[in-house]
Design goal:
The protein has about 160 residues and is α+β, with helices and mostly antiparallel strands. It has helices spanning about 5-15, 25-40, 45-50, 70-80, and strands spanning about 55-60, 65-70, 80-90, 95-100, 100-115, 115-130, 135-145.
């Protein structure tokens, strides 16, 4: 094998094996995956969350607190937060795709209990996904400070998000 062909094979082997789709199909897939992730969080379904979260995941809240993948999975297993509502406000979601990176932004509506204490709030979030050999994975999330304490707007898509209330 010549050096040029060997170098080409080396470069190709380093690329993600998941075939890059078209930008519209990537946007639709990431939007669906983000809603699926929020639904898993709303149910405290650590197994489903774990399939979507990247091993190197980090969440940064508006007050500066950070959480990693294990923190979120443990919170789900212990049902630390119980959600009545954890949904995007209808029409607020935007998905942007930049090659093998995608960013989802939306207004999140939250209502539930955290350690037995009730809460109702809304906040903006940005979720970053990367394309890996195993498909799109949620690698980084950032949540704003609270936009509104109450009342929570009813409605939206079913599902929750890994936003610690």
């Amino acid at each position: 094998m010549n050096t040029s062909r060997a170098l080409s094979l080396l470069v190709l082997s380093a690329l993600p094996s998941a075939a890059a789709g078209s930008e519209p199909s990537d946007r639709a897939e990431v939007a669906r995956l983000d809603v699926e992730y929020r639904a898993a969080v709303e149910r405290n379904d650590a197994e489903a969350m774990g399939r979507i979260l990247h091993e190197g995941f980090t969440l940064v809240l508006g007050d500066g607190r950070t959480f990693n993948r294990n923190d979120l999975l443990e919170s789900a297993r212990t049902r630390e937060v119980v959600y009545e509502i954890q949904a995007e406000k209808p029409g607020s979601q935007t998905v942007r795709v930049f090659g093998d990176t995608a960013v989802v932004t939306a207004l999140l509506v939250l209502k539930g209990t955290n350690g037995g204490k009730s809460f109702e709030r809304q906040l903006w979030f940005s979720d970053t996904y990367v394309r890996t050999r195993a498909g799109w994975k949620y690698v980084f999330g950032q949540a704003s400070t609270v936009v509104r304490q109450t009342p929570v707007v009813q409605g939206g898509t079913s599902g929750g998000s890994a936003r610690t209330a």
